[in-house]
Amino acid sequence: MSSQFPFGIINRPAGIPFAARLFALALIATLVGLTAWHFQFQAQAQAQESLTITGRVINGTEGASPPADVPVLLLVSGADASLIATDQTSTLADGSFEFQQVPAIADGSYAFSVDYAEVFYGASLSLDDLAVEVELAVYETTQDASIVKVTNHVMVIGDIDEKNKSISAIEFVRLTNASDRTLLPNLNQPVNNVGQISFLRFALPPLAEELDVGSDMPGGDIISIGSGFALTSPVVPGNHFVDFSFRFPYQGEDISYRQSLPQGADVYRVMVPVRFGTVGVDTLQPVSAVEQAGDSYNAWEGREFEPGEGFSLSLTGLPQPSLGARLEKSIVSGTFWKVAIPIAMGAVLASLLVLGTLRPRFKANMPLGRSPGENRTAVDREAAIRDIANLDERFHHGEVAETDYRAERESLVDRALGGVSEGADERAVRLGEEDTKDE
Questions:
Q1: Which of the residues in the chain have pLDDT under 50?
Q2: Which of 47, 299, 301, 313 is 20 to 30 Å apart from 263, CA to CA?
Q3: Nearest-10 Cα torsion for 334, 338, 340, 344
Q4: Superfamily for 145-316?
């Protein structure tokens, strides 16, 4: 027998002091009588608007017995989602249960939950749904994660930050448990008797960060495992979703990593916004462009991946930062200010000393107008600037030893600041010797 819903307590108004006049007492008595009649009418009306709910908990696993003495919880909410009433009962030997004197709320919600074998099963029904017997299904559990299959797995490139060389992505996974058992991960024994991991697992690119996961499977935790993460949520029979977003870095124009598919995938697709026209996926087949939420995406996909198969996912044609952005990144790095500035200042002083020695003879002997050497100097200066940016970036990432970096950068800075080329030096020496002979 279920407990009864409380419908509130009637609060009667306090009486007037005994010494008051008789007329006041008569008036209060009349008001009290009217108030008592009003609350009695309300109680009767409420009693007429209650209902009895009958239901049954069935075991959806083939060959399993009906669950007896299983707790069933009921929550009644109004149209504004405010909680109106609660009640709890237990199932009989045949799995049946009953709730009595339940408020009948026209736009309300009736949420049932059953705790069976360490898993919560629930259903949310309307008042109309209660006209027939409520049926709630529970299942026996297993640690065999192979009962879960991925029907669609879509990776969408949301944005590419070419200045900082990072990619933002979100993956949409649609999966199904077509068996008659619930996958229940065991934190104390993550691997079952046949060596299978009992968690749902998902791969991430190398050095991925800012992971955010959403799912329709309640409970459980997100744990780091291998090169990705796992979910410890129970997976009841039926269809479910797991969505997760993240950000990961890249270096050159291409990036390739192992895309593991522990649950396999009927379809795996990568979608890249059309605005990143140079980006492609070499290891999947191109398919028709996709329109989604007003945006156009180029798409590539593969099919029929077996559990644990996976593949090498390669993104090509990734955008590179401009020369200005690379110089800016180099300049703002701590290594630049610590090492490059002293080297550059030394190079400037050396260049000024050389120019101060040679410039008078250049002025006296150089013809007016631009010489062919000046064009070569401008080209050399632009090339030197590009080489400085490349060298700074390589040193920042630890690809060049500090000794080699200092020596090479000093030479490049000399070129970028307009240092005299080898041909110009030889011409200056030659002109100087001719002036000496003339004197």
A1: 1-48, 358, 360-371, 420-432, 436-437, 439
A2: 299
A3: 130
A4: tricorn interacting facor f3 domain (2.60.40.1730)
